[in-house]
């Protein structure tokens, strides 16, 4: 009887070791990809194109695609929203400035860019794997789903943009801001002489 328990533990140990090793290697490559957002998003775009080609080739899995679209819309709302929503949470000093005289506080996303990318990439990979199982291929009239998703997208984005306007925040920063400094008195005085 002792041999049965020993064999079970011996079988589990290599599997746990392999899982631990795989987890470490996966985390290593995730950490190395962090400073390369363009390459990461290009990889996600490639995964999305492969998924779309698979759905087009199979002519099915529209429910999976609809679910994927709703999930991505939900992630996008988290990406565009501030960490501390001034409309919902009690203001405790970590809020967005609402007046010009308020102190500048940087925009902190509810869902950071890396987590946003990782969740979208995982979603496309899972959806791609789901296209290999016929149980997920529910017959639906896809134009209705597509129209409904567009209506949902427009209404959700309208609400989000109105929220941005109301609380005066922009979730995007284009490039690094540079300090231009004050204009020197010599340059302004030379233009007066001319």
From TrEMBL:
The encoding gene: LOC115738613
Function text: Involved in the retrieval of endoplasmic reticulum membrane proteins from the early Golgi compartment.
Annotated organism of origin: Rhodamnia argentea
Its membrane topology: Multi-pass membrane protein
GO CC entries: endoplasmic reticulum; Golgi membrane
Family: Belongs to the RER1 family.
Domain of life of the organism encoding this protein: Eukaryota
Ranges annotated as spanning the membrane: 63-81, 116-134, 140-157
Signal sequence region: none
Record localization: Membrane
Pfam family, one: Rer1
Keywords: Membrane, Transmembrane, Transmembrane helix
Coiled-coil stretches: none
Predominant location: membrane
GO annotation terms (biological process): protein retention in ER lumen; retrograde vesicle-mediated transport, Golgi to endoplasmic reticulum
The name this protein goes by in its record: Protein RER1
């Amino acid at each position: 009887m002792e041999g049965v328990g020993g064999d079970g533990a011996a079988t589990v140990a290599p599997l746990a070791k392999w899982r631990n090793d795989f987890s470490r290697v996966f985390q290593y490559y995730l950490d190395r990809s962090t400073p390369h957002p363009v390459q990461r998003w290009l990889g996600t775009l490639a995964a999305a194109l492969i998924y779309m080609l698979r759905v087009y080739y199979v002519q099915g899995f529209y429910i999976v695609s609809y679910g994927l679209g709703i999930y991505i819309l939900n992630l996008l709302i988290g990406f565009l929203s501030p960490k501390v929503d001034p409309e919902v949470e009690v203001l405790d000093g970590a809020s967005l400035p609402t007046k010009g005289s308020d102190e500048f506080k940087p925009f902190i996303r509810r869902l950071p860019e890396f987590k946003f990318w990782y969740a979208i990439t995982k979603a496309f990979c899972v959806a791609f794997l789901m296209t290999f199982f016929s149980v997920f291929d529910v017959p639906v009239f896809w134009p209705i789903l597509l129209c409904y998703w567009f209506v949902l997208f427009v209404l959700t984005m309208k609400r989000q943009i109105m929220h941005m306007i109301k609380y005066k925040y922009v979730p995007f920063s284009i490039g690094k801001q540079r300090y231009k400094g004050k204009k020197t008195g010599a340059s302004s005085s030379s233009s007066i002489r001319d």
